[in-house]
Hints:
Chain A has 555 residues and is of the alpha/beta class. Chain A has 18 helices and 28 strands. An eight-stranded parallel beta sheet of chain A has the order 8-11-12-13-14-15-18-22. Chain A has a seven-stranded mixed beta sheet with strand order 3-2-7-23-24-25-26. A four-stranded mixed beta sheet of chain A has the order 5-4-1-6, with no helix packed on it. In chain B, the strands form four sheets. A nine-stranded mixed beta sheet of chain B has the order 6-5-19-18-17-7-8-15-16. In chain B, strands 12-11-10-13-14 form a five-stranded parallel beta sheet. Chains A and B meet through helix 1, helix 2, strand 9, strand 10 and helix 3 of A and helix 5, strand 9, helix 6, helix 14 and strand 16 of B. Strand 20 (329-333) of chain A pairs parallel with strand 9 of chain B, so a sheet runs across the interface. Zinc ion (ZN) is lined by residues 59, 61, 118, 264-265, 379, 382 of chain A.
Amino acid sequence: MSNEIRIINGIVFDPTNDIEGKVAEICIRDGKIVSEVSKSAKVINAKGMAIMPGGVDIHCHITGPKVNLARKLMPEDHRLDPHFKTPNTQSGSGGIVPSTFATGYRYATLGYTTAMEAAVPPLTARHALEEMYDTPIIDNGFYVLLGNNLFLQSLIAEGRYEEFKEAVAWWLNATKAYTVKLVNPGGDEPWKGHKNLNVKDIDEDSKATDIAPRKVIDAFIDALHELGTPHPPHIHCNNLGHSGNFDTTLETMKTAGDRRLHIAHIQFNSYGGELGKSPKSASKEITDYVNDHENITCDVGQVMFGKAMFMTADAPLTYLLRGYKPQKWVNADTECESGCGILPFDYQGMIYTHAIQWAIGLEIFLLSKDPWRIVLSTDHPNGGSFMNYPMVIKLLMDYEFRKEAMKHLNQKAMNSTILGELKREYTLNEICIITRAGPAKCLGLKNKGHLGVGADADITIYDMLEDKEEMFNAPRYVIKAGMLLIENHEFVSDYTDKKVLRVAPEFDKDIEKVIKPFFDDFYSVSFRNYPIQDDYLHGHGVVIDSVKKNSIHEN
Amino acid sequence: MSAVSKDNTIVNEKIVENATCTFCGCCCDDITLTVDMDKKVVTKAKDACVLGKSWFLNHVIEDKPIARIAGKEVPLDDAIDEAAKILIEAKFPILYGMSDTICEAQRQCAPIMDDCLGTIDTTTSVCHGPSGMAFQGVGEPSMTLGEVKNRADFVMYWGGNPAEAHPRHFARYAVTPEGMFTPNGKDDRTVVICDVRHTKTAGVADIFLQVKPGKDFELLWMLRAACKGVEIPDNCKEICGIDKETVTDLFEKMKNCTYGVIFFGMGLTMSRGRHFNSGALMALATDLNEFTHFVAKPARGHGNVTGADNVVAWQTGYPFGVNFSRGHPRFNPGEFTTVDTLTRGEADAALIIASDPVANFPKPAIDHITSEKCKLISIDTKNTPTSEAAHVSIQTSTYGINTGGTVYRMDDVPISLRPAFDSPFPSDLEVLTKLRKKVNKLAKKLNRPYATKKYI
Ligand code: SF4
Ligand SMILES: [Zn+2]
């Protein structure tokens, strides 16, 4: 079989290389994009079709312990959405939290080829890596939860910043993670140790650790800046989901100064109004700040109506939401490092809060000026399934469609949003940026998100259709690492040689002497058994190098 | 590494530090093994409990054939070919067991059944299956065991006998260890045992509750009602065997602790009420979060049954009892659980991995699995009634002693094994990977028309 492919006549969208909708040829050899291939290369005639790099999801929850708990929790949901076996692919279960096989295939059928798992506790990171190996096609990496790590917090509290930085580097290596995830920093201790309380203010000292969230945030931003990780700390801000939380979000972003910071699912952190009352939109305040600060990147966390699943390390929030709708609920405390809450949910257009959340997400998309720093996400499955992405794209590209959708939603919410006045329509090129080129750049993935020579040959070819939802719902061809996987909408082969993306910043080995005593006292596993061996990468690990920069535009 | 032994002969000795014992769900990973590399035996297992010691020390490499078909020794590949052929040709193949092997091997199992349009089930269906079902219904507030050690000031065991089934549970995780917020160990905790009889476990209890057999649900429901402000009824003793004052006092202790935990065992899940019992307990733990931080956890039994649940769930969406005959996973305990598929005489081929149904199942199930109507394939480390009754029998090496890999502790924490010495037998992973490839090849050749629409 030839490992060369030549794609001809297609309309190429490659914003990274300043190519916007130009007919050009793409050549592939040995999994990479090259300038020329031989005559024997397989030819794909993409006449009238759009060629884009494979999609890159910067924030989703698809593998690991909490995902599996949510999966186990939902037999009724799997039952309604079976994922059928084909001669080339394995069967699975769908629904809001699909099984691993179904997850990989379904991402591929949307034209996505990379997806980053956004929250994994270090202690159970092996589980996440094992699931990744069972998630076909898409490349993965994960963000490791360190924001509530009691040992690291104690180093910050004692002002031992040098050791803190070394310890963070040690943890990134020990877990094979891509970056650090901070979730409601400082909130776990009041939750676990003080009868289910939470922190409210990022300058308030958490009872248990005598340290304010801002200090934790600042220390991590600094450490990762110093280490030069390709992606900065990825933060789920304090007070997420609460009315009036936009102040906390602004303060969090200000903490970064001009150092890089990624705000996860920023929609959930852009609420005005009074605490405990219905939220109002603060999209303007938030996007104003983001627009003016090149060091900030974010993903939206768009809410879509229908089924969702709260699945977050923010355990107190999940419990609070359960108060509104008593449902089956999972809480999972991880010793010394994390918490987790899981709650099935559905967003309904007739409910004021849900409708305004939907509108706020879209406002943020439409008000932000730099598409390179705002990424399309639904915080799958928290704001809705990743299967909603094509619909989100249509909402962004079609003003009339938005107007029509608004008619069927809670009118009090619609009257309070400026969404109806925002006439902006995203172009195909901008969609290409917020779904692949941008996130790849935010992540510092030089070989993804573009079609230049040397890039990974992760490519999606869509029929140019008027209805953009339809168009993005079913690519005609999907190529992963140079291998044709989907041809005429059908899987023609399975691909399991996927990659695990990670970082490996250097650290001083002596830091282990500082960490070990804490382990011996307070962990339930031996220190030696905690770091993850290379075997868990199954030979598929890819280390992304460190680079120090203050904005994604410095290249 | 060499050392001089007592009688002055040189033995080839090896020390394995931080080895993990896979005998019970505690998965203690602090064991130091001393291995005689010449004799291929573990001579010491420092820090293991009695059960753990016997697990390590009694392990010997037996002299027996790797693979047999109808009792006759054959090359491994022939046995795998025969097994693959049986499974792919069967009308209703089942795969059962899986709990005593590593996750890497377990991961091969569902794909095999997917290709054969068969049924996959684990030993969960005969132990904590009801807890899995209750979880689907009510969820579960839970934790890793280190949280219990560091924080729990109220620890309860319900319907289990950890002193005998999980001997180091008290000392390593839940009762005596000195944790971050429990610096005085047991003195900082209230320990409550609830069981139908006074077992060895009850000895450590500050409070022992002897519940009437089959009345766990009633007691749990009274406590749930108490969470909603309903008084414990005056005839409490009549209902569940424990007087009102004791239950009221128990409830106060639960409500007022800082971090409460209940571990529950098969005494609860396998007695009258089954998943209603586990469900009531998890719901009670959930309710108690109105007052304080409260968690619960099934104290899972042996080896890597927790890993089996996890692997089957991530691959299919369901933890056990999964059928692929319609081209996608379907879950129905009672229909697709192994005792049932055998008792009804449905299975015409059975692949049993690291488990011994021929010794443990109800008689009608044994009758069928050993009959002509069901072709039996066994993959196991030991000779068991099942491996001896099997048409195809493959002997493998032992996880945790001869092979590495991942196991999940009862609290879902994955742990990597450190093997002591190698074995002439192939690993489960090797055998199952080969079998998966072979089955996949045969399935591709058959090119069955796969279903594409829902029947539901
Ligand atoms: S408690 Fe269980 S895991 Fe620990 S040594 Fe004993 S048998 Fe092994
Ligand atoms: Zn998220």
